[in-house]
Amino acid sequence: MTGIKYVAFDVHKSTISVAALNLEGKLMTQAVIQTEASAIRDFLRGISGSVHLVFEEGCNAQWLFELARPLVAELIVCNAKHSSSVGNKSDRLDALKLAQYLRAGLLKAVFHGSLQTQTLKQLAHNYDSITSDTTRCMNRVKSLYRGRAIACSGMDVYYSRNRKDWLEKLTEEGIRLRAEFLYKQLDHLRPLRRDAKKAMLKEARRHTAFKRLCSIHGLGPIRVAQIIASVGSPNRFRTKRQFWAYCGFAVVTRSSADYEFRGSRLERRPKSTQTRGLNREFNHRLKQVFKGAALEALKEESIREIYTRLQSKGVRPEMARLTIARKLAAVTLHVWKSGEEFDEKKLTKIVA
Description:
Blueprint lengths: L3 E8 L3 E7 L5 E8 L2 H9 L4 E7 L4 H8 L5 E5 L1 H4 L7 H14 L13 H29 L16 H6 L4 H32 L4 H6 L6 H11 L8 H8 L3 E4 L4 E4 L2 E4 L5 E5 L5 H14 L3 H12 L4 H22 L8 H5 L1
Parallel strand pairs: 1-4, 4-5
Antiparallel strand pairs: 1-2, 2-3, 6-9, 7-8
Helix pairs in contact: 5-7, 5-9, 7-9, 9-11, 10-13, 11-13, 12-13
């Protein structure tokens, strides 16, 4: 197929550096176009043959994915870490190297969800950011009191009914004025957080898997909404081990010089693989969700029995909770993919 073109975009705020190679790897064209929908469409439509396009994951990757997908034969959105290289760097070189990696088949695609979950994904981002802003504001309020040796444990310091008494404890005028502004900020953020939660859950309930996943131990409506928003489709993962890696629960090992010659015979070295811990590239929201679900699930007798059995075998508490989180992730993937209802009796069988 001589008509294949390997095209790479190095995307920036206002410009895109483009490099295009033919099937033999010869550079056909290099150009700079505007980061605008019309310019991108015109450029891709002007390339003859079967276009294979690649660009790196970034803030406008989803927009560019939806724009370019109908115009090309193949589209890969890759992780910037996997396409980085040493040596000289410029926009033209970055685009050229990316096109060469695409032609050589050295790039792994980053998943971009279907339009069915895009609304929920944005609402989940919205809820997470407002929750983070609310927590940050609450921490700043407490830091003012703790910085002056005023005990403020619990939630009483945030309640509006006792706010006057708390402000009177701050004798410095500047600190008191700062606290008043922080309280005003908190008063605006709390209603926004409630509204963001309602909007996210309303959208999440439209998905058929929502009710089934809510029945799993430790997974409430908010966690289920975050899972659906982050994963999009469970069919992305062929096995639970792939899902564990995405959640940050995969064990990463390292070994070297595994074999040696003894005489003329090749044998494996009698040493165990060195364990280095969990994988470092993962979805941070999902890891937080399943770790929190593991703590919540310990209230259930069946989960508590597994946790107690692990500890009786000498497993440290944090590792036992990690095991529970892995089990919940495996159960979630199974229930979601199979369409079955969650059955507590099958818990051990599902995760085995």
